[in-house]
Design goal:
The protein is of the alpha/beta class. Helix content is 34%, strand content 19%. The protein is built from four helices and six strands. A six-stranded mixed sheet has the order 3-2-4-1-5-6, sandwiched between helices.
């Protein structure tokens, strides 16, 4: 089973727009990542979950357009920035299909660290806005990092 973790793309700051939609750079970056993921990474997921915050929703919608998951996108409040990573860790124990989560820091970082080291405070991954991290669950439910792609490394 693969888990794709996506930090939302770059958003406007609160002073510019309190709803924090994606910035022009954010839109450009996530469209580039989505197109690359569809063409080269062949990500096969049933659904994309996001926190419900506008920047995460917009990021998820762009990814869904190119990856075309059958069940599209779903809000999950457990993906909010300060959400408890244990909620998704428990849910992933029963999950057999590949899943994509679009969220925020510090939640994504804590979830990844919890899965990889059983310690959410031990930083495992330096997430980048609009990037995708692929984790894979193997034998004895052990997780490993398979790859990471960021907007900066796609030409």
């Amino acid at each position: 089973m693969k888990l794709f973790l996506v930090q939302h793309a770059k958003a406007k700051n609160k002073n510019e727009d309190p709803t924090r939609p994606l910035s022009e750079k954010g839109w450009k970056d996530i469209k580039k990542i989505a197109k690359y993921a569809e063409e080269y990474l062949h990500i096969d997921i049933r659904q994309i979950f996001h926190s419900g915050k506008l920047r995460a929703e917009q990021t998820a919608e762009v990814l869904a357009k190119d990856l075309n998951p059958p069940e599209k996108v779903t809000i999950d409040k457990n993906l909010e920035p300060l959400g408890d990573p244990k909620a998704w860790k428990r849910q992933l124990i029963e999950t057999t299909e590949d899943v994509m989560l679009v969220g925020h820091l510090p939640h994504l970082s804590k979830l990844a660290s919890s899965l990889l080291f059983s310690n959410e405070d031990q930083k495992a991954i330096a997430f980048k806005m609009g990037g995708i991290v692929c984790l894979q669950r193997g034998q004895q439910h052990r997780w490993t990092i398979q790859w990471m792609i960021t907007p900066e490394i796609i030409s």
